[in-house]
Write a structure and sequence with these properties.
Chain A is mostly beta strands. Helices cover 0% and strands 50% of the residues of chain A. In chain B, strands 2, 5, 6, 10, 11 and 12 form a six-stranded mixed beta sheet that branches. A four-stranded antiparallel beta sheet of chain B has the order 3-9-8-7, with no helix packed on it. A two-stranded antiparallel sheet of chain B has the order 1-4. The chains are: A mainly beta (113), B mainly beta (119).
């Protein structure tokens, strides 16, 4: 069964460093998403991406964040200058259409020291 | 703005008990979608069910059942004869649809309910 994959599973970085989180969505899906979950809290929407552009973003998704689909399979989230409060689990998800079921990857745990 | 409330922070039951997880939502749209996801201790988010706002039929899948009531804006989830493997955090989520076809599917999650099933 097709699944969303994410790498790395755990990333440790120093405050102020840039990180890139990688995702491979399900191959026939057209909509891509990033969410984050601070430890013990709810899952929060960051950004949706469709047709090679951002379709919606939350207040969390400020200028420090960017997304890219560099080729036909990868979908990346870049945090330009990490802060302590960026420490969280980051989930990638994809769906065939906007309101369709989103399937989530296993997540990348980002720890900012 | 859309909102999902899961008032039960934690529920603890003994194996074989039935348990119901509550979910109440708010939206101004007439077209919307409701979801339940399971997050086991390993951390991934596992899709359980999707319901659209026009389909109020209750659904049963094995030991799982869902009760969607638009009149009370609720989408409750019942596990019958719970098992230790059901122990997880359960999230209810809402996505607003758009009749004009411009919905991009942003999910708004509730706070989650931690379910612990004891042997």
């Amino acid at each position: 069964e097709p699944e969303v994959t994410q790498t790395p599973s755990h990333q440790v970085t120093q405050m102020g460093q840039e990180v890139i989180l990688r995702c491979v969505p399900i191959s026939n899906h057209l909509y891509f998403y990033w969410y984050r979950q601070i430890l013990g809290q709810k899952v929060e929407f960051l950004v949706s991406f469709y047709n090679n552009e951002i379709s919606e973003k939350s207040e969390i998704f400020d200028d420090q964040f960017s997304v890219e689909r560099p080729d036909g399979s990868n979908f990346t989230l870049k945090i330009r200058s990490t802060k302590l409060e960026d420490s969280a689990m980051y989930f990638c998800a994809s769906s065939e259409a906007g309101p369709d079921t989103q399937y989530f990857g296993p997540g990348t745990r980002l720890t900012v020291l | 703005a859309q909102k999902v409330t899961q008032a039960q922070t934690e529920i603890s039951v003994v194996e074989k008990e039935d348990v119901t997880l509550d979910c109440v939502y708010e939206t101004r749209d007439t077209t919307y979608y409701l979801f339940w996801y399971k997050q086991p201790p390993s951390g991934e988010l596992v899709f359980l069910i999707r319901r659209n706002s026009f389909d109020e039929q209750n659904e049963i899948s094995g030991r799982y059942s869902w009760n969607f009531q638009k009149s009370t804006s609720s989408f409750n989830f019942t596990i019958t004869a719970s098992q230790v493997v059901d122990s997880a955090v359960y999230f209810c989520a809402l996505s607003e649809g758009n009749a004009g076809g411009t919905s991009y599917g942003k999910l708004t999650f509730g706070q989650g309910t931690i379910l612990t099933v004891h042997p």
